[in-house]
């Protein structure tokens, strides 16, 4: 049974509690810097689930397991495993019969959003989902400005595919123009479904 | 980059290569016995994906990570982690705009399918998905008979919810009556989307 806070919110143990903040800056290959933003999205997903608005989950971090020990009959301990790059986006689920698929990232940049934390195979996944008529988007968080934008997948894919030719990041102005602002609050913390409704309504 | 066989099929390392078959019988809390059935489904998913029929993935095994070492700047090694019970089903994705969600299990029983390998929170997840108009089902594999059935989620949930009152397993006859037979072959190995089409067509 999950441990819960008095307000019913699930207690989620941080993935790597003993990792120092300074470690994150050394290595760009993991997207751990987005952790608290991800936590907030997971809380919002929990709110949506409990209130029967949507069923959206974060996929577990893929690990390549190399060694497992069995000290007891019932407990298996993984003693050697390596982080793998995910082949899909982090979040997916169902909302009013629609298949929903998205990736969430944040930056401390003030004027543009770097694309380096998105992988080419994630973009391939987004394209495949679009061709199956799924709903695809990205949530981009400007941490300094405390602004979040929902950018439609087709738009984001266009930016990414032009990345090598033109630029390694997207100007904030362009995100403001093409994205839908996501309002934040107490419950849910990040109301991205409201932004999604706006987008779908205007299509 | 993933390693591939000459036929383009992805090489997927077995999760616990050094675990003996006899170990599985000791502990029912992990569903490792279904591994090769799962592999076949993942190959079928890969076939569907490459042929742009559907985008369906298995979720990574959820692990609670307790310790991580950083021997080099770029390589993180997980040195202590524990298997967690998944809170959702194993497979989900999108097919012709429809949200697809299912669990796959197998048995060596000849006349009935035991329900003990399904967890209550997986059934709760199925109910939530149904309430969002998602497509939910289970794939049940009778290994001795080499027969696979697609059982609609609503039907399976009914069986599971009656479990405590009545029985711990479902008679094969009842599965034959309510399920749709899944044909197997070379490519795809397990053509569950054909069975799904039959079911959706008759609804």
What does this structure look like?
- The structure is a homodimer of 203-residue chains.
- The first copy, chain A, is of the alpha+beta class.
- Chain A has one domain (30-60, 86-202): Trna Endonuclease, Chain: A, domain 1 (3-Layer(aba) Sandwich).
- In chain A, 30% of the residues lie in helices and 27% in strands.
- Chain A is built from six helices and ten strands.
- Chain A has helices at 21-26, 35-50, 120-131, 153-161, 172-178, 192-202; strands spanning 55-58, 63-69, 77-83, 91-95, 98-107, 112-114, 135-142, 147-152, 169-171, 180-181.
- In chain A, a hairpin with a 4-residue loop joins strand 7 (135-142) and strand 8 (147-152).
- The longest helix of chain A has 16 residues, at 35-50.
- Chain A is globular, with a radius of gyration of 18 Å.
- Mean pLDDT of chain A is 85; it is low at 14-34.
- At the A-B interface, strand 2, strand 3, strand 4, strand 5 and helix 3 of A face strand 2, strand 3, strand 4, strand 5 and helix 3 of B.
In total, the number of domains of chain A comes to 1
| Morphology call of chain A | globular
Structural class of chain A comes to alpha+beta
The SSE string of chain A, one letter per element, is: HHEEEEEEHEEHEHEH
The CATH topology annotation of chain A reads as: Trna Endonuclease, Chain: A, domain 1
Query: How many individual β-strands of chain A?
Result: 10
What descriptive keywords fit this protein?
homodimer, alpha+beta, 10 strands, globular, about 30% helix, two-stranded antiparallel ribbon, Trna Endonuclease, Chain: A, domain 1, about 200 residues, six-stranded mixed β-sheet, 6 helices
């Amino acid at each position: 049974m999950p441990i819960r806070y008095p307000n019913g919110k699930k207690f989620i143990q941080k993935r790597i509690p003993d990792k120092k903040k300074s470690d994150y800056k050394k290595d760009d290959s993991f997207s751990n810097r987005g952790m608290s933003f991800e936590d907030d999205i997971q809380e919002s997903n929990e709110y949506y689930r409990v209130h029967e608005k949507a069923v959206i989950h974060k996929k577990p971090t893929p690990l390549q397991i190399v060694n497992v020990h069995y000290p007891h009959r019932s407990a298996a301990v993984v003693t050697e495993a390596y982080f793998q790059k995910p082949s899909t986006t982090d979040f997916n689920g169902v909302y009013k019969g629609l298949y929903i698929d998205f990736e969430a990232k944040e930056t401390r940049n003030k004027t543009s959003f770097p694309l380096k934390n998105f992988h080419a195979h994630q973009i391939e996944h987004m394209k495949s989902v679009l061709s199956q008529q799924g709903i695809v988007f990205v949530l981009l968080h400007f941490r300094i400005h405390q602004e979040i934008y929902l950018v439609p997948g087709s738009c984001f894919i266009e930016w990414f595919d032009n990345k090598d030719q033109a630029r390694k990041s997207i100007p904030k102005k362009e995100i403001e123009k093409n994205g839908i602002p996501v309002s934040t609050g107490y419950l849910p913390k990040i109301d991205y479904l409201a932004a999604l409704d706006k987008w779908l309504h205007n299509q």
